[in-house]
Amino acid sequence: MNDLLTKPAEEMNQEYRTVIIGSGHGGAIVAARLAEAGHQDICLLERGKEWVPGDFPDQFGGLLKNLRRPGNPLGLFDYQLNKEIDVLRGCGLGGTSLINANVAIRPDKELFDNPRWPQAIQDLADSGQIWPFYREAETMLGVGPHPRAAVKLKVQAMKERADQLADADFSPSLPLDVHFGDRGANHVGVHQNPCIDCGDCFTGCNVRAKNTLYMNYLPFAESQGVDMFAQVEISHLTKTADGKYSLHYRVNKQDGQGELQQVQARHIVLAAGSLGSTELLLRSRKHGLPVSDILGKRFSGKGDFVGISYTTDQVIEITGYGNHPDSRRAAVQPGPSIISGIQYNRSRPFADRFIFEDTSIPLAAVDISRRVLPFVIGRDMQDVTSAIC
Length: 389
What we know:
Helix 1 (25-36) runs parallel beside helix 6. By secondary structure, the protein is an alpha+beta fold.
């Protein structure tokens, strides 16, 4: 099962029973489970291209070449700079799983104690019946700890910091979507290799060790009969007189987009991410699709921020070397993008808790980081860390 998962867009039918828009975690899981349950005539559409491990960029020039922008719709990295929040999304079959940091932490139960969740979700969390769904996803994604975490210098540095903090739980290895087992076919028949600790998770794993959706849910869905098409971007949706939907799309090419075309569906699963799904519905509203007035409101990020430790006397070795085990850089094996974590303020109310995580710099960003980081101007957090310690 190592052939391409997608078909050429020219082979798309004119109508499907169900069309899934997006191939990230939402779309990939829905496709796999619908097909597994016996549903047929399912089509999954992805705006980016199908990235085969080995083709991901590992040089800075490759990163620049693969920034998604007008005139380059197949770029892997879709970075949006906005007034109040910046967003980085992966563009390709597998969505942002292609460039995420592999961490699969279960949320605290208190997360679901919020009336904004559907009542059914709150009831599942209250009864404890929500966690079997997490276990099922963790099994499919191959979630587990890093077996060599304790020897990594960045993990040792994290433990030293954790020992200085009160009300903190240290995990030498968080649950990771990374394959550390043997070389060979995985549980859905896809060939994988064990992680070599190269640090290139953020820019795309060329080792075939990162458990992206391309390694599990997507090939499983394809084996169950789901038609998959990459480089197909939906412009907008309209409703037909007989209750179906028309999906107006263009085929993305390396240098631009094709002409507007249509495919119809009885059912649509909108799984293009928080931004992508919202953008699509807003465009569709201009073409007459009725949507809620709440659309686009109450949006927030995950509260992520980046902190840099400097002028220390502790070596942590976080520079990556990519899939080049014979290179001079390979003497440093930083490990996946994130390995360890410190869960802080564990006894405080849910909104006061947060997590520190380590990082690694992928090969493509090592040289530019060395040049740029000394000139980064930010807020010195010594006052905050002193209060914490």
